[in-house]
Amino acid sequence: MQVVGAGRNDVDAWTPAIVETPGGATIGFLAGNDIHWPGYRATSKPGVAEGRTDIPRMKAAIRSLVKKVDYVVVGYHWGL
User: Fold this and answer.
1) Would 44 be classed as within a structural domain?
2) Count of domains for the chain
3) How far apart are the first and last CA of the chain?
4) What is the Cα gyration radius of the chain?
């Protein structure tokens, strides 16, 4: 099991997971989170990938992943 959308630091939190199916297709997973309190954002410390507060970064991450895999799945956690 791979983790996306959170990690030991900012780089980990924004790193996609890539899985290959038995048929050879590749699926890339990204995740963003907008339910958090101060201090939950990944920096040099553990935290989550804040998607909505950094839309350009989220778009760039998706565009980059599209070039590497056959399918992209983006999980997004928001709302109360």
Assistant:
1) yes
2) 1
3) 27
4) 13
Sole residue written with tokens 């895999």: 69
pLDDT, tens digit (0-9, with 9 covering 90-100), for 16-60 = 999 999 999 999 999 998 876 767 889 999 999 988 778 899 999
Dihedral sign (CA 65, 67, 72, 77): positive
Structural domain containing residue 56: 6-77
* Secondary structure of residue 40 in the 3-state scheme: coil
8 A C-beta contact, residue 36 and residue 48:
yes
Domain membership flag for residue 1 = no
- The identity of residue 23, as a single letter, is G
- On whether residue 62 sits in a domain, the answer given is yes
Rounded distance between C-alpha atoms, residue 39 and residue 27, angstroms: 31
Spatial contact of 66 and 21, defined as CB atoms under 8 Å apart = no
